[in-house]
Design goal:
This protein is an alpha+beta fold. 44% of the residues lie in helices and 12% in strands. It contains 19 helices and 13 strands. It has helices at residues 14-17, 27-38, 60-70, 78-87, 89-94, 106-117, 127-141, 166-185, 189-195, 217-240, 247-267, 338-348, 364-374, 436-440, 445-449, 464-474, 477-483, 489-498, 509-543; strands at 150-158, 268-270, 276-278, 296-299, 305-316, 322-329, 354-356, 377-379, 398-400, 405-407, 416-422, 427-433, 457-459. The strands form five sheets. Strands 1, 4, 5 and 6 form a four-stranded antiparallel sheet that branches. Helix 8 crosses helix 9 (189-195). The mean pLDDT is 90. Bound molecules: iron/sulfur cluster (SF4). Residues 408-410, 412, 434, 438-439, 442, 444-445, 448-449, 456 line the site of iron/sulfur cluster.
C-alpha cells in the first residue's frame, strides 16, 4: 500500500493558501499525498526531463497528474486542461506546483501523450498500458477488490475524425491529396484543379460543387464515376512522381493514396455502361473516415449503430476496479480481444477463476481456450439453437466423446463416420451418418429429417464437448443465480462514460487506447483514494 509523503509547506503552497482545496478520498488528494508511489521513475525512463542529455522538460509526475485530472470530470481538451492548471488551486496542489509558478502548455501535454503511447524499450509494452497495470496492482495490494466478481463487457466510443459517405470520402480524399501535392510542388490549388481535371477540389463543398439532382440515379452515377476517375488519376500521378518527395510527405501521401483506393475498391462497382457507381453491397471492413482510418461502423444492438471504436473491459462489478481494457475498431466482435483481456487480468490477479459475460462471450472456442490456457471459467449464455417447432435438434443426439460415437433420438448408433474440412472453423470436423434404410423406416423421421430424403448426417462442432457442457451448466439454477451479478457490469461501463470515454478526443486508435487507459486509471485511482482515506480515518479514530 502506498505511504503518504512528508511535504514541507511554503507560503506559496496551494495547500497552505487554500487548506480546503484537497478533500480526503478524492483524486487530487491522492495525487498530492501519494504521487511518489503512483508514478514510479522506471515508468518514465527516457522522458527528456529525466535524461542526461537535452534540455530539462517538465517532470513526468507533474504531467501525469495533469493528464489524470484532465479526465476528472467528463473529460476536457488539452487546451482547457492547460488553462485549468494555470488558475485552479486544487489542480496546482495535485500537480505539486506552487501558486504563481509556470504550468505545462498544451504542446508539452501533447508531447507527453506521444511519449506514453510509445512502447517501453525494455518490455515492448505501450507505457500507458504499463501505467494502468501498475495502478491495478496498487489497488489490489490496498485491498480495493476484497470480494470480487469479475465480469466483461464492451461499449461504443465515437470516433473523433469526420465520418463521410462514399461521395465525400472520394471528394475529400482527392482534395486533401491535391492540397498536399500543391504544397510540395509549389503549385496553386487552381493549377492542381486544372491538371487533375477536378474543378470541385477548390469548391467549398464537394456535393455543392455538382449542380445535379442527387435523387436522379443516372446523374448521381456520373458524379461518382467522375470522382472515382479523378481519384485514380491523382493516385497514379503521385505514385509516378514519388521520388521527388521527402520521406515525411511520402509516408503521408502513400497512406492517403491507399485509403482513397480502398474506398474505390470497397464502395464501388462497374455498371453495364462501364461507369464506376456505388455498389449495392456493403464491404466487410468498410473505411468510413479518412482522418480516422481505423474507425468502423459498429452495432451495439440490432437497431443501434455507431461509428468509431469499441472499448472492451474486464473488471470487478463489486468494487468497480477495471483490471484490463483495450480498444478495437467498432466492427470487431466482442469475443475477438476477450482472450487477450482475460490473460492480462489473470496476470495481474491470479485468483480470478470465473468471468461473467453476455452471449457475445459465450462461444465454445473462447470457453475452451480460456479454460485451457488461463484456467478461467466463463459464465455466459451459450449460443442459442434455432429449431423449427416440432423438430428434433442436435441437442437430442447423445454424443459419447470417449467412444467417439453418437446415438440418435431413436436410439440408433451412427452407421458410419468420417471427417470433413470446414473453412469457417478452419478445422477437420467429425461427421456421423445413419444409413438410408434405418432412417427411411424410422418413426421419428418427420421430426428428424422433415422433407429431406436419404440418411441423416450430423456434423459436430469443433468444440462440441465444450458447447454441450456449457448448455448443461447454463440449465443449472445456481449458474443463473450467479449470472445475475453481470447486470452490474453497467456500473463499470458507466464510470468510464461519465469521465469522457464515449467520445474519442483525438484522431486514431492509438490515441483512443491512451484515452481509455487514462480514464480507467483515473477511475481505479478514485477507488484507491477512497480506500486510503477510509483507512486513515479509521487509524485516527482508533488513536483517539
Ligand atoms: S431419422 Fe435416422 S437419425 Fe433420425 S432419429 Fe430416425 S433413425 Fe435416427
Amino acid at each position: 500500500m502506498p505511504q503518504a509523503s512528508f511535504r514541507q509547506r511554503s507560503f506559496l503552497s496551494p495547500e497552505f493558501a487554500d487548506p480546503a482545496c484537497l478533500v480526503d478520498g478524492e483524486l487530487p488528494w491522492l495525487l498530492f499525498h501519494f504521487g511518489h508511489a503512483l508514478f514510479p521513475a522506471w515508468l518514465f525512463d527516457g522522458w527528456n526531463g529525466l535524461g542526461r542529455r537535452g534540455r530539462n522538460a517538465w517532470p513526468a509526475h507533474v504531467l501525469m497528474a495533469m493528464l489524470l485530472l484532465r479526465w476528472e470530470e467528463e473529460g476536457m481538451s488539452r487546451r482547457a486542461a492547460a488553462r485549468r492548471a494555470k488558475h485552479h488551486t486544487q489542480w496546482r496542489a495535485a500537480m505539486s506546483l506552487q501558486i504563481g509558478s509556470d504550468t505545462p502548455s498544451e504542446r508539452t501535454l501533447r508531447r507527453f501523450e506521444k511519449f506514453l503511447r510509445a512502447r517501453d524499450p525494455k518490455t515492448g509494452v505501450p507505457r500507458h498500458l504499463l501505467f494502468h497495470e501498475h495502478v491495478v496492482r496498487l489497488c489490489l495490494d490496498a485491498g480495493v477488490a476484497s470480494k470480487p466478481i469479475w465480469a466483461t463487457d464492451s461499449t461504443p466510443m465515437w470516433a473523433y475524425g469526420a465520418v463521410f459517405d462514399t461521395v465525400e470520402l472520394l471528394g475529400d480524399g482527392v482534395r486533401t491529396l491535391a492540397m498536399r501535392w500543391a504544397k510540395i510542388t509549389g503549385a496553386s490549388m487552381a493549377a492542381m484543379s486544372r491538371r487533375w481535371n477536378a474543378a470541385w477540389i477548390i469548391a467549398k463543398s464537394i456535393k455543392g460543387a455538382f449542380s445535379i439532382e442527387w435523387s436522379d440515379e443516372n446523374e448521381r452515377a456520373n458524379v461518382v464515376d467522375a470522382l472515382a476517375q479523378a481519384a485514380v488519376h491523382a493516385v497514379r500521378e503521385i505514385r509516378r512522381r514519388l521520388d521527388e518527395v521527402d520521406t515525411e510527405h511520402r509516408q503521408w501521401l502513400l497512406q492517403r493514396c491507399a485509403h482513397v483506393l480502398r474506398v474505390v475498391e470497397n464502395d464501388l462497382e462497374t455498371d453495364k455502361n462501364g461507369r464506376l457507381i456505388i455498389a449495392e453491397r456493403v464491404a466487410k471492413d468498410r473505411l468510413i473516415s479518412l482522418t480516422d482510418p481505423m474507425a468502423r461502423h459498429g452495432r451495439k444492438t440490432q437497431s443501434k449503430t455507431f461509428d468509431g471504436f469499441k472499448l472492451h473491459l474486464v473488471g470487478d462489478v463489486v468494487s468497480g476496479l477495471i483490471a484490463s481494457l483495450t480498444v478495437t475498431p467498432g466492427n470487431v466482435h466482442d469475443n475477438v480481444p476477450a482472450h487477450r483481456l482475460f490473460a492480462r487480468a489473470k496476470r495481474l490477479h491470479t485468483a480470478i477463476a470465473e468471468i461473467l459475460g453476455d452471449t457475445a462471450y459465450g462461444s465454445a472456442e473462447l470457453r475452451h481456450t480460456s479454460r485451457k490456457d488461463l484456467g478461467l471459467k466463463i459464465i455466459a449464455p451459450p449460443p442459442p439453437v434455432s429449431v423449427d417447432e416440432g423438430r428434433l435438434s442436435r441437442a437430442d443426439f447423445k454424443v459419447d466423446f470417449e467412444a467417439n460415437d453418437v446415438t440418435c433420438p431413436a436410439g440408433h448408433q451412427a452407421t458410419s463416420s468420417y471427417t470433413t474440412w470446414s473453412t469457417a472453423a478452419q478445422a477437420h470436423l467429425p461427421v456421423f451418418k445413419w444409413s438410408v434404410e434405418l432412417c427411411s423406416t424410422c418413426p421419428l423421421r418427420a421430426q428428424c429429417r422433415g422433407e429431406q430424403k436419404g440418411g441423416h448426417r450430423l456434423i459436430l462442432h469443433s468444440f462440441e464437448k465444450e458447447l454441450r457442457a456449457a448448455r448443461e451448466t447454463w440449465a443449472d439454477p445456481a449458474t443463473r443465480q450467479a449470472y445475475r451479478a453481470r447486470s452490474q457490469c453497467e456500473r463499470l461501463v458507466n464510470q468510464l462514460v461519465r469521465h469522457g470515454a464515449r467520445n474519442a478526443r483525438a484522431w486514431g486508435i492509438q490515441a483512443a487506447h491512451l484515452q481509455g487507459h487514462l480514464i480507467a486509471a483515473r477511475c481505479n485511482l478514485g477507488l484507491l483514494a477512497r480506500r486510503l482515506a477510509q483507512e486513515r480515518s479509521q487509524t485516527i479514530r482508533a488513536a483517539a
